[in-house]
Amino acid sequence: MSEPPVVVVGAGPQGLAAAAHLVERGQEVVVLERGASVAAAVAEWGQVRLFSGWPELVDGAAQRLLERTGWVAPDSGYPTGDEWIDRYLAPLAAALGDRVRTGLTVTGITRAGRDLVVDSGRAEAPFLVHTLDADGGEGRLSARAVIDASGTWSQPNPAGADGLPALGERAAGDRVSYRIPHDVSSHAGTHVVVVGAGNSAAHAVLRLTELARTAPGTRVTWVLRRGSTGSVFGGGAGDGLPERAALGIRARRAMEKGLVEVVTGFRVAELRPHPEGVSVVADDGREIPGAGHVFALTGFRPDTAFLSELRISLDPALEAVSGIAAEIDPNIHSCGSVGATGARELAQPEPGFFIVGAKSYGRAPTFLALTGYEQVRSVVAHLVGDHEAASRNELVLPSTGVCGGSGDFDGTADGCCAAPVLQIGARPVAVG
Hints:
Mean pLDDT: 87
Number of strands: 16
Low-confidence stretches: 400-432
């Protein structure tokens, strides 16, 4: 009887890269993607331009697999999410063929015949991956190992500053969005509030301020939890990702020109009904009245519900893999790049199970595509018994110029720190 395959959950950049490494190593692999097509999460922000250039967005094993089909790697430029799919991720999925299965949601992962409690024979039992298709059909797939590369896109953080939805947030319904907008034209002539201090928020603000320049009556308010704007605008010339540096510069310019009102030290506690939409209320009683729409762009968190029957170790604060939490914790690190993490750091109490990619970082915002590619290279090497390769560090990152630790959350002084690093970012709309 043949050995079951390695199952990869998620056909995004890291999941497809993991599959390419497994194929290169002669391993059977099945990739499960809940979207109707590969990289479904990337497609949802397809209009956004990445901060990383093409050389940092293509995995080595994936490139070698693709080149056998005649594919030529783009060598320069900053693609949008759609371009990343069209020119790299979709061809990679095609090269992997029927190993990639779309329209299948993973509903649970367990050990065959053993729930979370049972010790006996656990490590020797294969994994069982339970799935649900678009028609409601249930399935089950045996696996010798599982790589969870499902990301965090499905779990956006709420507007509420305490980690739970603000009072009235659920009731606000379609007045609140949690994704970078594709089209802002419907907000012409209205008051729009953007909550969040990261690059996604800055991108949304710039798009809205551009609208405000051409659509009279359009107002933009940018709400920050922090007491100052100093860390919001990036690392400037010190940032090795020039597109991200440009975003911060243009966001600052928009504020200085009065195109956006910035409110600091504002922790959202409530969204109250208002004749023009909602009023955004802080925990100190301050109120921003009459918002037609609120964009809550406050980051993401991992979905671990389908891992409830596996023995996993996550950091209690970050929900990141415990073995890497100390290296990525924004409460600790105020400056510098996040280094490489591999199989050793990503190992779980459940042998043969790994969480990789953005999901491995939990709520930490410092993930880059290159980091994930190094993770899957190391994990796959471990799974095939090449422990020398698994322990080797092959990651080379650009200098980020990034700080942005949370230790000064309540501070008002501007420091040297920049906004947290994100895997995805945007080429900003020109302002002024």
